[in-house]
Give the backbone structure.
Amino acid sequence: MDETPDGPPSGVSPSRPAGVVWDLGNVVIDWDPHAAVAAGVGPAEAARFLAASDFDFRAWNHLHDAGGTWADGLAEVARTSPHWAEHARAYHDHFPASLVGEVPGTAAIIRELHAAGVPQWGLTNWSAELYHHAPATFDVLALLEDVVVSGVEGVAKPDPRIFAVLRARTGRPLEELVFVDDRDDNVAAASAAGLHALLFRDAARLRAALRDLGLPV
């Protein structure tokens, strides 16, 4: 069952959760692949590439999030869709441009929870080869105890195996943790794994939902 920032569902314990787990892209960090592709081939070509009916950018990018290498991924585009090879390479080569800033309001919540002593972690679908750009750019990530990076683990949300990795890395029962993500499928998978899963829409509604769970925000 998906949960939303409107509050926890019936049946969830009213006791305060032991910590919060954050998805990063489009929850903490505003990720815009168009900006990276456009930096290499221009805005019009970037829009055409990302909307193409003969190339699924999201599915292709997910392969890297799940542990695939960029050398293999770019070679596959050059082999199967050579007319998009330059566009795909532009995304990789200009990836930092896709990290356009913080999602408004989320970093403030992370800082408040940290100041109150609430432990926090990250669980992100992100290429192992490109993740280093995130902590180098966004200081707020240093407040997280640890970040589970899908590309490093070789498994990506919503695959339930990644939640077993999260359990091991946090050392906490998943039922004690709140998970925040912007994708319905990831929220559903997290809920099935036992987390208090919240669908991120905006920081104001998230703040209200976390407060309803007893967290000091």
